[in-house]
Amino acid sequence: MPTNTLTDAQVKRLQPREKPYKVFDGGGMFLYVTDISKIWRVAYRVNGKQQTKSLGPYPLVSLAQARERRDELKRSLLAGDVPARRKAVPTLSEVSSRYWETRQDLSAAYLMNARNALEKYVFGRFGTRPVDQLTRDDIMAVLTGMNDEGKFVYLRKLRMWLAQVLDFAVEHRWLTDNPATGIRTDRAFGRRKVQHFAALELHEVGPFLARIAMERDLESVLANGLMARTWLRTGEIRNLRVTDIGVSPGLPGRRILIPGERMKRAKDLIVPLSRQADEIVSRAVLRNRGSEYMFPAVHRADRPMSENTILELIDRVGYKGRMTGHGWRTVASTWANEAGYREDAIERQLAHKPDDEVRATYNRAEYLAERATMLQAWADWLDQQTAACQRGPA
């Protein structure tokens, strides 16, 4: 049977078909072509039994390199050196399952997002393939498809999650190199236009709160008021439970404790309540119709309020495009920095990840006391701004 029948041009022109197929070069070597990859393989016999060995993916392994590997294998067989039976390599989906089981530091919601993304975009195409046969071209094909759909942020998350799984495979020696780490998403793919959350200037806070106060005791008013005085995100406010309210040693009043399973990095978040925030909590509980949620949906007490509730309130009072619920975090951070509070306390109150985890853990109690003082001063300042607008000019 003739050998070396293929040319570089022929190999390059080969296109996927409805089903995977083989193109032979001779000497037992062939190129296995699928819809997303081309893999060099060689067939040989040991004691009369058919064996197949992967020579690597094209174009990472060129035609000439594949032939060299084929010939090297043939020489070894003639010399009586039988290739050791390779330890079974788990599939990509199997490696992924093992990896995420080790990540006990992450919340259930975060794990579900990562697993669902890989299942939807990756495993359907090559989840059953041995992990060491995944190529950079395979990954790029997935990411390019997402890029064409405008999923610029999501594709970056997917590459990150896949890279973590493949790093795990490298550490267990199922894989030599991680093909995802070399993909520069900042160079290869587009970006979504950055949309900053609208936020008021400090001098605009008083008139805004005075206008909001005219809306009476609507749940949206209370939710907005608590968001302003705690610096929580919209999702964190919406999903507050009545059971999140309690007391902690060292705090002068009550606090909110959001358990780690509802936070991205599975870390509990303690928020000291100012006197004003505590009053809002009490009023909200009286109005929540016995729901487990502090701010239940209007027609369903077993669900939290809509994610657009606070934004709709802001739009209704005439501040559309000028302020958002999330904007309170920007306003509060600006005030706290100008008031001279320490960056560590401000960042912890915003639930940002600290640069130094050891230092942050060591100073946790100190931050909590300082944050309680800071939030009370902030709540008092908000009251002062509101009262000044309600009194009008002297």
How are strands sequenced across the largest beta sheet?
1-2-3-4
Measured between the Cα atoms of the first and last residue, the distance is 103 Å
What is the top-level CATH class of the largest domain?
Mainly Alpha
Roughly what is the average pLDDT, rounded to an integer? Answer: 86
Spatial extent as radius of gyration: 30 Å
The CATH homologous superfamily of the largest domain corresponds to: Intergrase catalytic core
> What would you call the structural class?
alpha+beta
CATH overall fold name of the largest domain: hpI Integrase, Chain A
Can you give a write-up of this model?
Helices cover 48% and strands 11% of the residues. Helix 3 packs antiparallel against helix 4, helix 4 crosses helix 6 and helix 14 crosses helix 16. The chain folds into 3 domains: 71 residues, Integrase, DNA-binding domain (Double Stranded RNA Binding Domain); 97 residues, Tyrosine recombinase, N-terminal domain (DNA polymerase, domain 1), CATH 1.10.150.130; 190 residues, hpI Integrase, Chain A (Orthogonal Bundle), CATH 1.10.443. The protein is of the alpha+beta class.
What does this entry show, briefly?
This protein has about 400 residues and is α+β, with helices and mostly antiparallel strands. The protein is built from 16 helices and 7 strands.
